[in-house]
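Each field is listed here:
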Amino acid sequence: IQPWKMESSEMLKACVLFGMMLAVAGNALAEAEAEDRQVFLLIGQSNMAGRAPIEKEDEAPIEGCALLNASGEWEPATNPLNRYSSVGKRLSVQKLGPGYGFAKRWRELHSDTPMGLVVNARGGTKIAEWAKGTKYYDEAVARLKTALANGGQLGGVLWHQGEGDSRSTETYLDSLSTLITNLRTDLNAPDLPFVAGLLELDDRDFGKSPRLINDVILMLPSVVPNTAVASTEGLLTMDGTHFDAAGQRELGKRYAEALFKLTSRID
């Protein structure tokens, strides 16, 4: 039947039917995307939360990447990525972190696979505050489980923390190893990939011992299987601690490449 020869009632029925077909197709596509989505947890302190200014090139949504919002639903991933953190500080301090550069680079490496970010960082925290049973740990695990409830696969964890422990590094590696073990147990993911980022600490502010924390973090892959480290060599900071916008973009890219190499070995 040619549309211009149809009665108005027939045209209405045809439009309704076509709309239903589009809705069914859209739901099927959304369900397929949910099943295929790789979900990543991003936790740690202020550099992971993001303190660098969001510049023009950081404003666009990341194609193929979703962000878990405060309602436990997916929405297009835009900066600041830590704005929905259930343990975060005020919105005004949430700026550019490594998650944006990570997602863009990961999409380049996995262009056919949708991804989702659960960003739940909190500035100024020590690793003891991320131990199992604490608010920060429990909230991170709860939000990640919410993200995975409707499908998707757990892709890995990105961790950037240590500034708060730079003066006392003796137990840091044990604490980090325990954190990873607990995450793997509670998420039923014994081979969960985990990437820790190195820090940039200004000796003027932290004395002579801060760089020891990086030496400790570098030991992680030799102590805990399926872990890697993202380098910060050559990156610049705004204040001796917090990476600038260019540094955050590059750090995110390095997270993605470290995770890619790690998961390629695991596979």
Notes: The radius of gyration is 21 Å.
